[in-house]
Amino acid sequence: MRPPVITGSGDLYNRKSTTGYLFTFSEGVISWQSKLQKCVALSTTEVEYIAATEAGNEMIWLKRFLPELGLH
User: Fold this and answer.
1) Which helix (DSSP H) or strand (DSSP E) does residue 29 occupy?
2) Structural domains counted in the chain
3) Residues 6+ apart with CB under 8 A from 44
4) Helix ranges (DSSP H) in 6-66
5) Do the beta carbons of residue 59 and residue 66 sit within 8 Å?
6) Which of 1, 38, 43, 47 has its CA 20 to 30 A from that of 57?
């Protein structure tokens, strides 16, 4: 599994950021998400921290799930 691609961008109307991540395995996408954050972040660092936390949670889940499929 490769390191995820993590992104973040802002919406000027509601001041919430859209964050997303993309995980690939063996040249194929196995998990992705793009969604509006629930809170208003006051800095880009906070946006990146929230996105990295969500991607980290997904990575932990994938690392536990993929071995059950026989993939390492």
Assistant:
1) strand 28-36
2) 1
3) 8
4) 44-65
5) no
6) 43
